[in-house]
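Before the break, one more example. Copy the sequence into your notebook; we will annotate it together after we see the structure.
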Amino acid sequence: MTIRVLLADDQALIRAGFKMIIDAEPDFEVAGEAADGREAVDLTHTARVDVVLMDIRMPHMDGIEATRRICADERLAGVRVLVLTTFDNDDNVALALHAGASGFLGKNVAPAELVAAIRVVAAGEALLSPRATRGLISRFGQQSAPPGKSRLAALDLVTEREHEVLVLVAHGLSNDDIANRLYVSPLTVKTHVNRTMIKLGARDRAQLVVIAYQNALVRLGDALPEPPRLSS
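Here is what the structure looks like once it is written out:
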């Protein structure tokens, strides 16, 4: 299956560099190039896009608003947005995740990392910069959950095991990590994650993390929960 990628950046030189990387992959195809957010939204509708590489700072419409419009459109439910930024600690990245982005990368990412990130996001997973994401999302969660905010009602539909998996996802653990911790298979974890996304209306793993912080299931500085003990 060919993964069609839209490049959205106001700098032609950066788009050209990413295009060279993407064109070198036999199962990748550049679906189009956009120099601003408005053009990115329009091309996403017309170019059969799977993944948008989205710059944040662009003229006419920034990447955050473009991400919000793409992710809010039911006709584009299969499109994933991967935000590109110059700064890993840019607070705008948190806003992009809240708008529906599936993750972010620094613009200085190595070619192999970029290719791997596109594959991860195209498969419906979240891709979050390993260096800064946990602190970034936890800051976002604190900023977005003021005192007195009502708890998401859909959390009542989540089973005890799904809740356990959700908390571990919010701590940044992969499916394999969670499987090892809970003594189950990665496929079982993936099933729990997918069911939780459906129940909570989350597009992907990144939004599960945001929901967990917004609803105080995880707080900044929390330690990982103790793994269950094997019965003797």
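The chain has two domains: 3-131, 146-214. The first strand starts at residue 3 and ends at 8. Try to locate both features in your own notes.
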